[in-house]
Amino acid sequence: MKKLTLIVFLLVAICATAADTKPVVNRDGNCVVSVPSNWTVDPMFGMGTSPDKKVSVIVSSPKHGLSTLDQVEQLAPTVYPDDKITKKSGSEFAMEGKNQAGKPNFYRAVPAGAKICIAEITYESGSPADAKAIIETLKAK
Predict the structure, then answer these.
(1) What is the 3-state secondary structure (H, E, C) of 53-101?
(2) DSSP result, 22-39
(3) Per residue of the chain (141 residues), what is the pLDDT tens digit?
(4) Three-class SS of residue 3?
(5) Domain extent listing, the chain
(6) Beta bridge partner(s), residue 123
(7) Three-class secondary structure of residue 20 per DSSP
(8) Residue 106 is inside which H or E element, if any?
(9) 3-class DSSP state for residue 117?
(10) 21-140, which class in CATH?
């Protein structure tokens, strides 16, 4: 009986968590990030924005120039000089710091077949942990 109760509880928790988020998908439809369900999503730009407009995420998959994590690892630090590399492996590249406008950000890239999925979240409100939790949902579809 305890096992059945635990299984039912876990299923309810999973369903509740899934219902509390919605996807932000890039234009090509091959990359996705999950954001809270009260966010506004712009599918044309692969962008999600918090209700207070102080947290935003953008998801992309470059068509030309960047198709491997090695290429992202070389270019991203030059574009984001105020970020530090936090993860660098064959399956993920991540940085955190401040974007070009001086706002705190997290940047993440993962492979997507012959392409790369890239997401950046910039935040002025909320906690760094909340922003990081969102960026870590980035995955290839």
Answers:
(1) CCEEEEEECCCCCCCCHHHHHHHHHHHCCCCEEEEECCCCEEEEEECCC
(2) EEEE-TTSSEEEEEETTS
(3) 444 333 333 333 333 445 699 999 999 999 999 999 999 999 999 999 999 999 999 999 998 878 899 999 999 999 999 999 999 999 999 999 999 999 999 999 999 999 999 999 999 999 999 999 999 999 999
(4) helix
(5) 21-140
(6) 55
(7) coil
(8) strand 104-112
(9) strand
(10) alpha beta
